[in-house]
Design a protein that fits this description.
The chain has 277 residues and is of the alpha+beta class. The protein has 9 helices and 10 strands. A 7-stranded antiparallel β-sheet has the order 7-4-6-5-9-10-8, with helices on both faces. Strands 2-1-3 form a 3-stranded antiparallel β-sheet, covered by helices on one side. The radius of gyration is 21 Å and the shape is globular. The protein starts with a strand and ends with a helix.
Length: 277
């Protein structure tokens, strides 16, 4: 988010009106108040105006899907793509439990192999996209990919990326009772620790007898863990999510890559950054 905010106007607690900067593409004048306010989650001031960057609609869009025998194979493919310098619009990892939920919910227009699966998006010139897909396919096959497909058909793009968007609704549809709760948390770890972190997350969720899954923004080491459970077991499920976040800290990661701290994670933030920060 912060990378798309050029400047902000905010009202501080004492009524002071602050404008963080003007509208040039770059500036090194003064403190970076824009990033500070974006990262403060509304605790430093009330934003009344924001100047945002805009970009063009991606051209020649393609999507890809690659299924793997193990999470480690999928993550290793992602690491290979990232370290190669290949530019990919999106690189997402769905676990088998997510795909099972999607299949059972009927929220996707197709049935999916219930394996760790990378969902990819490409765009650019025809030659650039051709090269991106070729390199992605090579990296996937080198790591045991069992299925790789790509398409630029609008219907395929909607179906494939629609499945990615259907994860949370599909898990919610798996509730056994209307009173069941859907809980989630996100953490981020160095990408070299991601596959172990995801496998460990699966273990502790399913050892507790809960329905749950993980979805990873595998390109940056961020992933979301979700649990569906009876309302009476909500506290137990929340303790599992807290274990996940603390494990991320142990691996030199963070308790939240996207969701933010808020009130829920305020005390745990001290464990990550220390009292002095």
């Amino acid at each position: 988010m912060k990378d798309w905010v050029t400047s902000m106007t905010a009202v501080l607690a004492d009524g002071t009106i602050v404008k963080t900067r003007n509208r040039p593409r770059k500036s090194s004048a003064g403190y970076d108040l824009t990033s500070l306010l974006v990262g403060s989650e509304g605790t430093l001031g009330l934003v009344t105006e924001a100047v945002l960057k805009v970009t063009t609609v991606p051209k020649n869009q393609h999507v890809g899907v690659a299924a793997f025998p193990t999470t480690r194979d999928a993550v290793q493919t992602a690491v290979s793509l990232i370290t190669s310098g290949l530019l990919i619009d999106a690189l997402e990892l769905l676990d088998p439990y997510s795909l099972t939920a999607i299949n059972q919910s009927g929220l996707s227009a197709r049935a999916w192999d219930e394996q760790p699966t990378l969902f990819l998006r490409f765009s650019g010139s025809k030659q650039a996209v051709h090269d991106q897909i070729h390199l992605a396919q090579q990296a996937a096959k080198a790591n045991g990919c069992s299925v790789f497909e790509s398409s630029d058909e609008v219907a395929d793009i909607e179906t494939i990326w629609g499945a990615r968007k259907a994860v949370a609704p599909s898990l919610i549809a798996m509730k056994k009772d209307t009173s069941d709760v859907f809980l989630s948390a996100d953490a981020a770890v160095p990408i070299g620790s991601l596959s172990d972190m995801i496998d460990w997350t699966h273990e502790i969720i399913h050892e507790a007898g809960f329905l749950g899954s993980t979805v990873g923004h595998v390109g940056d080491g961020n992933y979301h863990a979700a649990i569906v459970c009876p309302k009476s077991e909500e506290n137990q499920a929340m303790k599992i999510l807290e274990r996940i976040q603390r494990r991320a800290i142990e691996l030199e990661g963070t308790i939240t890559g996207e969701h933010g701290v808020g009130l829920k994670l305020r005390d745990m933030l001290v464990e990550e950054v220390g009292e002095s920060a």
